[in-house]
C-alpha cells in the first residue's frame, strides 16, 4: 500500500474478525487460555528460599556499566584486570554507556593491548611464541597441501594470497625493530 493523503482503512473489530475467522480470539478470555495458570505469579512455586540471592563479596573493585546501580549477585573473578589493558577497560566502563560505540571500541582496543602485554610477558618469562609451529605452517606442507589448499568448497580462496603477509608481517616488523635497537645500542 502506498502512502496517500487518504486515511488507511480502519481495522476490523473483534466481532467482525470472530465472524469471519473461525476460532479467532479464543484466547482473549483468561479462563479459556491454556497457559493462564502459568502466568500467575506464585513465588512459592519456584522453590527458592530467598527474595534476592546472597551477594558475592566484591573483594577487588569490579568494572560495571554506568547504566546499572550495582553488580549482579554473582560475577566472574577469573581474569582480574591488570596493566594498561585493565586501565583502558576501567575507563570504558566508568566513562561510556554500553550503548555508545566508544565503549565497545575501547574494549576492543584493550583486548589488543592485552594481547601485546601477553606477548611481552611471554618473552620476559623466556617462553616467546613460536610462529612456525603455532600458525600451522608446517601442517601446510603435509597431507596433500596443494589439493587441500585449492580444493573445492574453500571459502577462503579469495584472501589466501594475503595470509602470509598478515601472519608474517608483524614478526618481520618486530625483528626489524629488535635489529634497530640492538644496532643503535652497539654504537
Any overview of this molecule?
The chain is an all-alpha fold and 187 residues long. The protein has helices at residues 14-20, 83-95, 101-124, 131-134, 137-141, 145-149, 163-186. It has a domain at 82-138. The protein is built from 7 helices and no strands. α2 runs antiparallel to α3 (101-124). The longest helix is centred in the middle third of the chain and has 24 residues, at 101-124. The protein is extended, with a radius of gyration of 30 Å. The N and C termini lie far apart (79 Å).
Low-confidence stretches: none
Order of helices and strands: HHHHHHH
Helical residue percent band? 40-55%
Mean pLDDT: 82
Number of helices: 7
- Shape field: extended
- As a percent range, the share of strand residues is under 5%
Please summarize the sheet with the most strands: none
> How far do the termini sit from each other?
79 Å
Secondary-structure content class: mainly alpha
Q: Radius of gyration, Cα only, in angstroms?
A: 30 Å
Please provide the count of β strands: 0
Amino acid at each position: 500500500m502506498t502512502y496517500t493523503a487518504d486515511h488507511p482503512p480502519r481495522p476490523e473489530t473483534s466481532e467482525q474478525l470472530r465472524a469471519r475467522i473461525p476460532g479467532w480470539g479464543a484466547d482473549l478470555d483468561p479462563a479459556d487460555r491454556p497457559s493462564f495458570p502459568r502466568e500467575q505469579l506464585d513465588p512459592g512455586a519456584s522453590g527458592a528460599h530467598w527474595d534476592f540471592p546472597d551477594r558475592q563479596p566484591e573483594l577487588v573493585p569490579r568494572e560495571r556499566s554506568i547504566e546499572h546501580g550495582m553488580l549482579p549477585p554473582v560475577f566472574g573473578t577469573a581474569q582480574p584486570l591488570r596493566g594498561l589493558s585493565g586501565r583502558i577497560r576501567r575507563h570504558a566502563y566508568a566513562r561510556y554507556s554500553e550503548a555508545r560505540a566508544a565503549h565497545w571500541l575501547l574494549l576492543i582496543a584493550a583486548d589488543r593491548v592485552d594481547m601485546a602485554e601477553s606477548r611481552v610477558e611471554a618473552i620476559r618469562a623466556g617462553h616467546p611464541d613460536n610462529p612456525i609451529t603455532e600458525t600451522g605452517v608446517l601442517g601446510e606442507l603435509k597431507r596433500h597441501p596443494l589439493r587441500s589448499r585449492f580444493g573445492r568448497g574453500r571459502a577462503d580462496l579469495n584472501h589466501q594470497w594475503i595470509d602470509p603477509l598478515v601472519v608474517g608481517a608483524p614478526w618481520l616488523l618486530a625483528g626489524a625493530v629488535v635489529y634497530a635497537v640492538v644496532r643503535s645500542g652497539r654504537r
